[in-house]
Each structure stands twice: as C-alpha cells, then as structure tokens.
Amino acid sequence: MKKLIALALLLVSMFYGQANADTQPWKLSTIRPAGTSIDNDLRAFIDEVRTKSNGRINIEIYPNSQLGDYTVVQERIGVGSVEMSCQTISATVDRQLEFLNMPYLVKDWDGIRKNFRMGTPFANWVAERLERQNIKLLAIWPAYFGGVAMAKEPPSPGDPSVKKNLKVRVVPTKSFELLGESQGYLPTPLPLAETFTALQTGIVDGVLGAGAEGYYANFRDVIKYYIAQNTHVEAWPLIINLELFESLSEEDQKILTDAAAAFEEHRFAVAEEDTATNEKKLEDYGVKVIYLTPEELTKCAEAGRELIVPTMRELFGEKTYDSVVNLLQE
Fold first, then answer.
1. Buried residues in 24-56 as b, exposed as e (16+ CB within 10 A)
2. How far apart are the first and last CA of the chain?
3. What are the CA-CA distances from residue 21 to residues 15, 18, 136, 267 (Å)?
4. Between the CA atoms of 315, 319, 320 and 324, what dihedral angle is there, to the nearest 10 degrees?
5. Residue 228: which H helix or E strand, with range?
6. Which class for 285: exposed (0-12), middle (13-18), buried (19 or more C-beta within 10 A)?
7. DSSP 153
8. Are 255 and 51 a contacting pair, CB within 8 Å?
9. How far are the Cα atoms of 10, 42, 161, 260, 323 from residue 237, in angstroms, in the given order?
10. CB 184 within 8 A of CB 261
C-alpha cells in the first residue's frame, strides 16, 4: 500500500511539475531600457497575445540586454533556451544576415516601407535565412535611419573626403568598418556593451552604428553631437524559436502572427515621426543635432557605396550579393 501511495504521489508531482513547466512565461529579449518605444510596443503585443490566448501564451519581456548580448541571445533562441527577441540581428552564425542593416542599402523611408516588412521579397529572404538557425520570423520593427554620434565635433561632417582624425566605434562587421572609413573616420570595432565606457574614457570619440533613438536611450550622457546622416536602416526582427512555434496549435500560431502583424503595422505608421521625436529629445538634452543638406547626404552615400559595394561583392561573391540586392524594390 505504501508503495502504491508513493507511486501516486510521484505521478501527481510529475503531472503538476509538467503543468507548471508548460505555463512558465516565455522570455523575450530586447536591447533597450523599459519605457522606450520598442518596450512599449512589445508590451502591447504581449498583452494582445495573452488576452487572445486566454493566458495560454504568457510572455515576459527582459529589456536592456538583461539576457545577454544580442549575438548570444540569438544563438540561444536557435537552441530554445530563450524563446523570443526583438533586437539587432546578429550575423555571427550567418554572415549573409549582414544585409539586413548594411549601410546605404536603401536611401529613404519609402525604401524602408517597400522592403523591410513581412511579405516583401527581401523580408522573405531574411525569414528563409533565419529558418536555417531554427528561428521563425514574425515581424520586422524599423527602429530608425542611422547616424553618427560624437563626443567631439568632427570637421566638415557632411564631406566624406575630409579626414576627421577621430575614432568611432563601429559594429564589428566589415561593412561598418568600411562605412566609417568612407566617411573619413577611424573605425574601431567594439561590442555594443563596451561602447559607453569606451566613449566615457576616450578610447573612442564617437559611435557609428545606431540612430537618434539608440543614442538617446543609451549614450545621451556621453555624446555632444549627432549627425543625421541616414547611414543605414536599423530594423529589428521579432523572432521565436521555430520548434516552439511549430509545436503550437494552429489557433495559437494565428494569434501570434496576427498580433505580430499589428505590432509591425503600428510601427510603420509612426517610425519616421519617431525618428524626428528622438532627434528633438537629443536636442532638448543638450546634444547638438547636425542636419545634412540633400547634396551632402548624396555625397556621403556615394562615398559609402563606392567603398562598401566592391568589397562586399567580393566577400559574399558577386552572384550572391547581386541576387540579394536585386530583391530590393526602389
């Protein structure tokens, strides 16, 4: 009898343990602090999913890189130890994903709207590349057009032929190293997590690789100038572990994809205006915002492409590079 009771208790314990495991909140990582635009939008997404699934899908957001550097988090999503994220894409595992934020890939917000949203040829290509890492793409959240943030004012910021003799932190990818060089800076590849201290201690004089939103959120206390240069598109994929997504019922899959579509659509409606809002926030905080003329923007873009395109075509192979770029709609 005692053995039967012990067995019954064990089975009950296993049942409730499994039930509790199944109802543990999914972890969703971001690189921005609580209260920022991405944090607010994701919380609305999470609330919609929780409500429409009657609590079956419970997601907990971890802002400000609490789960680690975005490169590590993306790898963890692939293996399932973190369920979701919406942050900078990592090209560590698949170098071709560098195309997602390659400098001067598109020239304006119309280009972003035509290419950086679900269902476009370019977004379908991104989704296919991510599936190779066991990751499902749910939506794309366009954060901003990039620019240059500086602790020191650069000479002739709108003239890429002028040597600035200033070190700027760049994203640790070849295309961003070339971007910094093409604009007259001395590029210094650094992880995002080390950038604030590098600026604070003078290891670098500025940052290239984010935009007004990112600079205001993370670096407003250590920069004095922001050059609105439209260097690159920062677009964050909302992603989930593929096996987890496929394990869901069709009903719950639809709840996730519908909420993700609304999340994406809302951002596209306000993203351009949000960029201007964050530029104003920088100004109000005491950062001098430098706006380039259309002629200067064109000159900077031409200098960037002149250096970046040949190198990236060689790096990826001409056929691969051209096939991806040809997906883009003007």
1. eebbbbbbbeeebbbbebbbebbebbbebbeee
2. 76
3. 10, 5, 22, 33
4. 120
5. strand 225-228
6. exposed
7. P
8. no
9. 43, 12, 34, 10, 21
10. no
What tens digit of pLDDT does each residue of 112-138 get? 999 999 999 999 999 999 999 999 999
Tokens of 265: 């659509």
- Contact indicator for 53, 255 with CB cutoff of 8 Å: yes
Q: Has this prediction a pTM greater than 0.85?
A: yes
Nearest residue to 248 (alpha-carbon basis) of 49, 47, 87, 44 = 49
| CA angle, residues 83, 119, 245, in degrees to nearest 5 | 25
Q: Are 235 and 219 in contact (CB under 8 A)?
A: no
**The Cα angle at residue 14 between residues 9 and 15, in degrees rounded to 5:** 95
Joined tokens for residue 182:
């093409």
Please tell me the chain's helix, strand, coil percentages from 3-state DSSP, rounded to the nearest 5: 50, 15, 30
pLDDT of amino acid 171? 87
Identify the pLDDT of residue 26.
Answer: 98
Q: Which residue from 74, 123, 21, 34 is spatially nearest to 46, judged by alpha carbons?
A: 34
Element (H, E) at 311: helix 294-316
Which residue, 215, 233, 230, is CA-closest to 151?
Answer: 215
The HSE-up count of residue 3 (CA atoms within 13 Å, CB side) is: 0
Pick from 191, 215, 199: nearest CA to 282: 215
E strands, 36-130, are 59-62, 84-86
Which amino acid is located at 88 in the chain? T
**Which residues of the chain register pLDDT less than 70?**
1-23
Which residue in the block uniquely carries the two structure tokens 């190293």?
177
Dihedral angle, C-alpha 135, 32, 175, 187, nearest 10 °: -150
pLDDT in tens, 26-39: 999 999 989 999 99
